[in-house]
Design goal:
It is a single-pass membrane protein. Its main location: membrane. InterPro entries: Band7/mec-2_domain, Band_7, Band_7/SPFH_dom_sf, HflK. It holds the Pfam family Band_7. The chain has ten helices and 14 strands. The C terminus is likely disordered. Helix 4 crosses helix 6 and helix 7 packs across helix 8. The chain has four domains: 69 residues, no CATH class; 129 residues, Band 7 domain (Tetrahydropterin Synthase, Chain A, 2-Layer Sandwich); 92 residues; 33 residues, no CATH class. It is rod-shaped. A hairpin with a 5-residue loop joins strand 10 and strand 11. 51% of the residues lie in helices and 18% in strands. By secondary structure, the protein is of the alpha+beta class. The longest helix has 70 residues. The strands form five sheets. Strands 2, 3, 4 and 6 form a four-stranded antiparallel beta sheet that branches.
Length: 361
């Protein structure tokens, strides 16, 4: 019976209980060590949970028990990078995207698309703006802004974007109230100094002054008028006016083009006429001076010898007359020349002597 197993005899009852107690104590000690290790690990993780990373396009504000940490603005605003903070709820990290451009839509000044008829304007449901010439327009505006002061943006108002919308709507209404309808539709107007004033820039400047007074820490970067139209009741009339304005501008451009073509030609003609008149004046003046000089010389000679000068002048005059006559006919002294309409058409006039006249009855 070599295959039979041999078993040791069981221990006495007291030894069994002692061994069990020892094993239980060892297990409890190991469990306590594990629980302690986990507690230390959880404590480390808890105290390290406040460490965070601030992204390059943002800054952070750190509040401890609800109070902002730091005495000066430079200490209150945490730059990008690793931020060592205590865990929540002891510390709270507020991230502010200061380099991000945000935008809000001001849609309370446009026609409502919910219910109602378009034949009448409901001043409660439909938004509108009133121009300086008592015309009613409707507009949809987008306001783009950046956060310039993170502390003021988060602590000055509970809902800064809502305050921004109200301030933007008020600035739009106040600015357009000083403009007429046509300038508002064109989004620009000309001042007395021939400077062009643009409506978005005027609204942005007025809105920025209002936000600075409120201290919201917001910098308005742009105002975009997505839509600005007359009310449906006046849309057709405004379209007719705009068509006439375009026609006027077209005629004005045509007139300016005609003037640009005509004025240079007129200037050239004027220059030519002035030159011709100046040259004619010079010629006439020179000739007159020569004649006056010649007359003075002849007159001086005439005073010295009147008969000789008179004879010479007479001969010179007769010489000029003879040169201008086409045909000459000499008659005897004392003869008379009778020129009749019949004889004027003939080759030579009739010559009647005094003797023939005396013999005629």
């Amino acid at each position: 019976m070599s295959d039979q197993r041999t078993f040791s005899p069981p221990p006495p009852p007291r030894e069994n209980r002692a061994r069990r107690s020892e094993q239980i104590g060892v297990g409890v000690g190991a469990g306590m060590r594990i629980i302690g290790f986990l507690a230390v690990l959880l404590m480390i993780l808890f105290w390290c949970s406040g460490i965070t990373m601030v992204q390059p396009n943002e800054v952070a504000l750190l509040t401890r028990f609800g109070k902002l940490v730091g005495n000066t603005p430079g200490e209150q605003v945490q730059p990008p990078g690793i931020l060592l903070a205590l865990p929540y709820p002891i510390d709270e990290v507020i991230r502010v995207p200061v380099k991000e451009e945000r935008e809000v839509s001001i849609d309370r000044l446009k026609l409502s698309s919910v219910g109602g008829s378009t034949t009448a304007l409901d001043p409660i449901r439909d938004g509108y703006v009133l121009c300086g010439d008592q015309h009613i327009l409707q507009t949809n505006v987008r306001v783009k802004y950046r956060i310039s002061d993170p502390v003021a943006f988060h602590f000055q108002a509970d809902q800064p974007e809502r305050v921004l919308k109200e301030a933007a709507a008020a600035s739009i209404v106040q600015t357009i109230a000083g403009w007429n309808a046509m300038d508002t539709l064109r989004l620009q107007r000309s001042s007395n100094a021939e400077e062009v004033e643009r409506l978005p820039i005027s609204v942005r400047e007025r809105l920025q002054r209002r936000l600075d007074q409120l201290g919201l820490g917001i910098e308005v970067s742009a105002i975009e008028f997505r839509e600005i139209i007359p009310t449906p009741q006046l849309a057709e009339a405004f379209e007719n006016v705009q068509s006439e304005q375009i026609h006027i501008e077209t005629r004005k451009r045509e007139a300016e083009g005609f003037a640009a073509r005509t004025i240079p030609q007129a200037e050239a003609d004027r220059y030519t006429l002035v030159n011709e008149a100046t040259r004619f004046q010079t010629d006439v003046t020179t000739k007159a001076d020569e004649e006056v000089t010649l007359f003075d010389k002849v007159y001086a000679q005439y005073l010295a010898n009147p008969d000789l000068v008179w004879s010479r002048l007479y001969l010179e005059a007769m010489e000029q007359i003879m040169q201008s006559v086409g045909r000459l006919r000499f008659v005897a002294p004392g003869a008379r020349i009778v020129i009749s309409p019949k004889s004027s058409t003939e080759k030579s006039p009739a010559v009647v002597s005094d003797q023939t006249k005396e013999q005629s009855p």
